[in-house]
Specification:
Layout (H helix, E strand, L loop, with lengths): L7 H6 L7 H20 L2 H34 L3 H9 L4 E6 L4 E4 L1 H6 L13 H17 L1 E9 L2 E10 L5 E8 L5 H10 L1 H8 L2 E6 L5 E4 L1 H8 L15 E3 L5 E3 L9 E7 L10 H5 L3 E7 L6 H14 L3 E5 L5 E4 L1 H7 L19 H12 L5 E7 L7 E12 L2 E7 L3 H45 L9 H24 L8 E3 L1 H16 L3 E7 L6 E3 L1 H17 L5 E10 L1 H7 L9 E8 L6 H4 L19 H11 L3 E6 L5 E8 L26 E5 L3 H13 L3 E5 L2 H10 L5 E5 L7 H11 L5 E5 L3 H4 L8 E5 L4 H13 L6
Parallel strand pairs: 18-20, 24-25, 24-26, 26-27, 27-28
Antiparallel strand pairs: 1-2, 1-5, 3-4, 4-5, 6-7, 6-11, 8-9, 10-11, 12-13, 12-16, 14-15, 15-16, 17-19, 20-21, 21-23, 22-23
Helix pairs in contact: 2-3, 14-15, 14-21, 15-20, 16-17, 17-20, 21-25, 22-23
Length: about 800
């Protein structure tokens, strides 16, 4: 029921007044007075009694008017104890906040996951997650619901659902649902209940998975039929020991088969290893286990049982092997051989032959220890012979009654996991190098701006033929080459300024083909092919041309005797991307560009380093090592992915995947790039120049003054505001973005209060894309460093022309 039941008092107080109340009250008073007068014969007493009746009724009416609002308010207040009890009954964390952002109710599970009961969205110390939760909350207030997926709280991952609720919709209901991660237990569950479990049953092997508490979680049909009598029986959650019995000789039987059953052999495979070195044996054995039961042969020998076990182990998807009491390996299944790095047909003699030399003694000692004494299991950390840098957990379990077999060995195939770890480490390293490269490029750009600017100013005082003219021109040329290197660093660190357009990759390849033919020379043949139904991509056409040129030049250098360079474009739909099973490539539609050659190929040890900046295999002085790092940065900044494939002696291939653009303007034609027209750079007006670097401020001031402008200067944002307040008629504000004390965007935000139509030109050694959030201000232009005198003058003139008419 939506409304709770009222008490008798509340029901009486909540009734509306009846129109017959007053006549009935007067009638009751007159009747009472008449009875008293008849009985006592006293008129005064009768009148007093009637007045008392009326007074009592009046007091009751006054009490009703006095306490009805309070009871009404109490009825309108939600009963949060009931809400909290309902929340605790669920398996998710629940919280309720009001319009003011105050936490009014939360479940106990919410307090366990978020100690101290923090008020959403402040459940995390991560500012980014807090902002994401705040945005989802605003969406819930606006649209009725909001959602955030993948909230990481340590090892716990949560999905957050937010809904507007309440009678007047003045509360937010926060639901934190754990995201269940797949585990080995899920694989075993599917194995037992699927086709593989049926095949085990046909081979006479019963299998069940139990939890650490000893209750059954899954079983194959053979176990269900013999333990419960029906192949479709539901025994999940029951005690495994209740289905078994042990006779006076210590033999194991199924409880249901009583006297007619055969003794069973039980094999235990631990599914959860000790989480840390030094864990007790009880910790290892308390985890989930896979139990395998096989009928004991009537002859009682262990050899036949061992053949059953070997058949079973060959079917299981886990890396398992068996060794005897002396440590000799008796059997290895395919999963174990794959995890140990064994080649087809190889069978080691001892487990120590699989591990590094330093770990051989520890493995041999562990095998001897588990081969004698009571049955037990445990883990040791070893390094495999073929992968000495990757620690691996080797599980051992003692087995009895299987003839020569005494120890069961389990090894996890972590090749994919190791590959993913290396990829993550490589991505982290590349990101750190990119941040360093971006910072170096920013500082270097300030120096180059001053050098190039002073060269331009000196060239204005000289004419061709002067003794110093050629020297100055050479300094400027070398400075421009250095500026090109900084642009490559910014490209690698994904901090360069891009001008993305909607385009088709075949058009870009066609535009650059003529240039490639001249670059490749006569010994290299260029082959170009395009697929059908290619989706449009959104990227900077000039930067994509740079990517193709860099890859082509590298391919040419890899073919000193000549060869073939093949450029292909083709569509990669989401279904094909899913079949590729790339850990890094998300499932989506892509347009791919493949650049392959028939050259020397790239050695495997170098293939992992080719995208790092300044890494080159060319001779000293013949390469900067920034070609492929620039390609990597441009592709990543464009939202794409790049992969390298190579075999020694068979060439190399670079494949670029760019996501298909699905915006509303995806079908628009690529705009034609028109030649830049040289504009007049002279002008007039007053310019306020704010720059913290003295050398940059000095050259910019001189350059603008020579172009006819009146220039006022300041060292930082605070000084800039003071100069702006002291001078009227400033026509343009030119400012650096990153400055001490007060940066450029903060200064402009305050300056626009008193000068709302003041044009602003930002200049910075960082990329515009990196600063876009901070400089997202109306009527603002951007000039990247380094720049020449003419570029500064042209940018100043264009920005002043942007000034809107004052209202």
């Amino acid at each position: 029921m939506a409304a709770r039941l009222k008490t008798d008092e509340e029901a009486w107080l909540g009734q509306p007044p009846s129109p017959f109340v007053l006549p009935m009250l007067l009638g009751a008073a007159l009747l009472s007075a008449a009875l008293v007068l008849y009985a006592a014969g006293n008129g005064v007493l009768a009148a007093g009694f009637a007045a008392s009746v009326i007074a009592i009724a009046g007091l009751m009416r006054w009490y009703r008017h006095l306490y009805a609002p309070a009871l009404s308010d109490r009825e309108a207040t939600p009963d949060w104890t009931v809400a909290r009890a309902a929340a605790d009954a669920s398996n998710i964390a629940i919280a309720v906040t009001d319009r003011s952002g105050r936490l009014v109710c939360a479940s106990d599970l919410f307090g366990e996951w978020f100690p101290g009961y923090p008020t959403p969205p402040g459940v995390s110390n991560d500012a980014g997650l807090t902002e994401s939760l705040s945005q989802a909350a605003r969406a819930a207030w606006r649209d009725g619901d909001g959602k955030l997926e993948g909230l990481a709280m340590g090892a716990l991952r949560l999905d957050v659902d937010i809904a507007r609720t309440g009678r007047t919709e003045d509360y937010l209901l926060w639901r934190f649902t754990p995201v269940r991660q797949p585990s080995a237990l899920d694989d075993v569950h599917r194995f037992l209940t699927g086709e593989a479990g049926r095949q085990l049953g046909e081979a006479g092997i019963m299998a069940a998975m139990i939890g650490g508490e000893g209750r059954i979680r899954a079983a194959n049909g053979a176990f269900l039929l013999r333990a419960a009598g029906r192949i479709d029986a539901n025994i999940t959650g029951r005690d495994f020991a209740a289905h078994m019995r042990v006779d006076d000789k210590g033999r194991l039987f199924l409880a249901r088969e009583e006297n007619g059953g055969l003794p069973l052999r039980l094999l235990q495979v631990p599914l959860r290893r000790a989480s840390q070195p030094g864990a007790t044996q009880a910790t290892v054995q308390d985890g989930p286990m896979l139990l395998l039961l096989i009928d004991e042969p009537t002859g009682g020998g262990g050899t036949s049982a061992l053949s059953y076990i070997e058949t079973l182990l060959s079917l299981l998807p886990f890396g398992l092997a068996m060794a005897d009491r002396d440590g000799r390996i008796l059997f290895v299944n395919k999963a174990f051989a794959r995890a140990a790095g064994l080649k087809s047909g190889d069978k080691p003699s001892y487990p120590g032959d699989l591990v590094a030399r330093e770990d051989q003694a520890a493995v041999a000692d562990a095998v001897r220890r588990f081969a004698v004494g009571p049955q037990m299991s445990g883990d040791i950390v070893v390094r495999m012979r073929d992968q000495p840098d990757e620690p691996t957990a080797l599980s051992l379990a003692g087995v009895r009654g299987l003839g020569e077999a005494a120890v069961l060995l389990s090894l996890k195939d972590n090749s994919e996991e190791s590959k993913l770890k290396r990829q993550v480490a490589q991505a982290t390293k590349m990101q750190a190098i990119g941040q360093l490269a971006g910072g170096v490029a920013h500082d270097f750009n300030n120096i180059l701006t001053a050098i190039i600017g002073h060269c331009d100013l000196m060239l204005m005082r000289h004419v061709p033929g002067d003794s110093d003219y050629d020297d100055i021109q050479q300094v400027k040329s070398n400075s421009n080459r250095a500026a090109g290197l900084t642009r490559q660093l910014l490209a690698f660190s994904r901090q360069q300024t891009l001008r993305p357009q909607i385009l088709q990759l075949p058009d870009i390849v066609s535009d650059v083909s003529n240039l490639l033919k001249r670059l490749l020379g006569e010994n290299v043949r260029l082959e170009v092919s395009h697929g059908r139904n290619l989706g449009a991509v959104r990227a900077d056409p000039g930067q994509l041309e740079q990517v193709i040129v860099n890859l082509a030049v590298n391919a040419r250098d890899a073919m000193p005797e000549g060869g073939t360079l093949n450029i292909q474009t083709y569509a990669v739909p989401a279904a094909k991307a899913r079949e590729m099973r790339q850990q890094i490539l998300p499932i989506s539609d892509y347009t791919a560009l493949r650049v392959s050659d028939t050259g020397l190929g790239i050695p495997p040890d170098i293939l992992a380093k080719i995208f790092e900046p300044f890494f080159t295999t060319k001779e000293l002085g013949k390469g900067t090592g920034l070609g492929l790092s620039t390609v990597y940065g441009i592709v990543k900044q464009s939202g794409g992915y790049i992969f390298a494939e190579s075999e020694l002696g068979r060439g190399a291939s670079f494949v670029i995947y760019l996501p298909v653009y699905a915006g509303a303007d995806a079908q628009q034609e690529t705009p034609v790039r028109e030649p830049v027209k040289r504009a007049e750079t002279w002008g007039s007006g007053t310019i306020l120049l704010v720059e913290d670097e003295d050398m940059v401020r000095a050259v910019a001031e001189r350059a603008l003054t020579r172009q006819g402008y009146t220039v006022l200067t300041a060292n930082d944002g605070e000084q800039g505001l003071e100069v702006l307040a002291a001078h009227d008629g400033i026509d343009l504000l030119i400012s650096d973005v990153v400055m001490p004390n007060m940066d450029g965007p903060a200064m402009v935000a305050r300056a626009r209060v008193s000068h709302p139509h003041l044009p602003v030109l930002f200049m910075s050694g960082y990329a515009e894309e990196q600063l876009r959030k901070s400089i997202d201000i109306a009527n603002v232009a951007f000039l990247p460093k380094p720049f020449s005198v003419n570029q500064l003058a042209q940018a100043a003139r264009d920005t002043m022309a942007m000034q809107p008419a004052a209202e």
